[in-house]
Amino acid sequence: MRLRLLLITLLLLPVAVIAYTQVMVRIGSGTPPPMAASTEWADAIHVNKSDRRLDLLQGGEIIRSYTISLGAAPENHKQQEGDERTPEGTYVIDWRNQNSVAHLSLHISYPNEADIAHADAHGVSPGGNIMIHGVLNGWGFLGPLHRMWDWTNGCIAVTNAEMQEIWSLVPDGTPITIDS
Fold first, then answer.
1. 74, 97, 169, 173: least surrounded by Cβ within 10 Å?
2. Residue 139 has pLDDT above 90, yes or no
């Protein structure tokens, strides 16, 4: 009887995890923090993919630094939708989503004209919706454990607490440079 109960539990666990994730993704991120004083805002973001670092800059000086997770195939520049690569190049934070499937998100302006031209030349979609975001809604308790592997679909992930801070320090229009 115990073995049967254990087997049923083991079979239902993945279903429960998937159902939990689907519900939490739809609930949203909660209330975003207020913006910091403009004197504290970053005026640029630099991401070094090989070091797994995101730095907020003000006047060329690092004011905050974060360890990140990237797309599941982080090497090289994003070429097309579904390749799970994080893009490389210079973009802009062009909008924010407080109802993201992950804890808050800042949209990176990928694809740019060159990305679109490259994808068109190869007959593929460049993809899009590349964000800086926290952990998937409902899984924030994982905290820094999410950094143990690159798990996004091409985005840049930080902990939820870090995302709260980044959200408050990065205004729309902030340039972001992503290097390999």
1. 173
2. no
Amino acid at 58: Q
User: Two tokens at 35?
Assistant: 């913006």
Cα Rg, the chain, nearest whole Å: 18
CB-based contacts of 39, cutoff 8 Å, min separation 6: none
pLDDT in tens, 93-131: 999 999 888 899 999 999 999 999 999 999 999 999 999
Q: Which two tokens stand for residue 138?
A: 């409902």
Which residues touch 121 (CB under 8 Å, ≥6 apart)? none
Among candidate residues 31, 150, 173, 146, the one with its CA nearest the CA of residue 100: 31
Single pTM value for the model: 0.86
Give the pLDDT band of residue 174 (cuts 50, 70, 90).
very high
Question: Left if phi > 0, otherwise alpha if psi is -120 to 50, otherwise beta: which for 161?
Answer: alpha
Whose CA is closest to 102, among 170, 52, 43, 167? 167
